[in-house]
């Protein structure tokens, strides 16, 4: 009902949408031009007052309001002149010249036509193209493709915000921060991700989520370290499964059309003096597409697999043969992969829990493990989380700044 009423107000021109969009764009830009958004002026002292409460909206939405305002204003120069000063100051503060040359579409040139006479036009056009990619691209932006420092400014501010939240000694202080900035304080740094706004309850949940942006393609062999670490591209994952697990990725047979008999070649029609009426063709029978098999269940232990080759590999373990013998202790295994994984336990344990931080401080219990997945399981335990906490804290400080 409210949407219908609002549409009525717009259609009857009781609400000037062009002025609203221009005002919202100017509001976002003026807010981001405030001194507290310059890298040298960002401080934890501004966090409790709610100084950065509007940041999560203004950082991504300034462009949407700017483009909508330019489109709906229909070259109303008096209205659009309200944007000149905020845009010019915004670019002077946040523009960083990228090394990549961006493609300028005709639609983009048409939208920004009003600013063509101003000296900052080229920088504005570059910033618009770059920011639009940041808002829609799910992959990793390269440093040379970023035309504004907003993403790094947001990360720095959030680092101080998270530090204030984690170091709050009183529950009243934490409740106050949650009322201002929301309950989920630990947010994804990607502008294109909805968790940029929603966030997570703990930094561990956020870090686990961010890993999926950089290495989203994971091996489906549970014992493989790449099932947790993942790959950056599908091509790398296919090569990994072929080289390590000797699995050749094949499409399901249902992805291809069923074979049909070829029609016999047509014989040339004899010359006829009279035209005969064509006989109606019999309708072709409809093909019934076979249902795709999504589950392959083991008949002996009832384990379920999503791929047939995984079930075939699993069925070997139910056989009595143990043809793959360990070269060290002679233990037999049904599959070569199992034997290879076992033999790694006899090798020198090269995966150590611990290391040295940049400041020279040592972290971890320095216990050694034969396999990477065993080390990861250790870090997921209660004792292991205590070991790796200094390392994660140092990483967080390098990304978001030191906790105060």
Automatic annotation (TrEMBL):
| Acidic residues bias (residue ranges) | 251-261
> Mind telling me which Gene3D superfamilies this protein's record contains?
Classic Zinc Finger (3.30.160.60)
InterPro entries xrefs: Znf_C2H2_sf (IPR036236), Znf_C2H2_type (IPR013087)
Q: Which PROSITE patterns match?
A: ZINC_FINGER_C2H2_1, ZINC_FINGER_C2H2_2
- Annotated region described as Disordered, given as residue ranges: 251-286
Q: What is its main location?
A: nucleus
Which terms are listed as keywords in the entry?
Answer: Metal-binding, Nucleus, Repeat, Zinc, Zinc-finger
- Subcellular location field: Nucleus
Keyword Nucleus among record annotations: yes
Q: Which residues form the C2H2-type domain?
A: 296-323, 324-351
Per its record, how is this protein called by name?
Zinc finger protein
Q: Which organism is it from?
A: Apiospora phragmitis
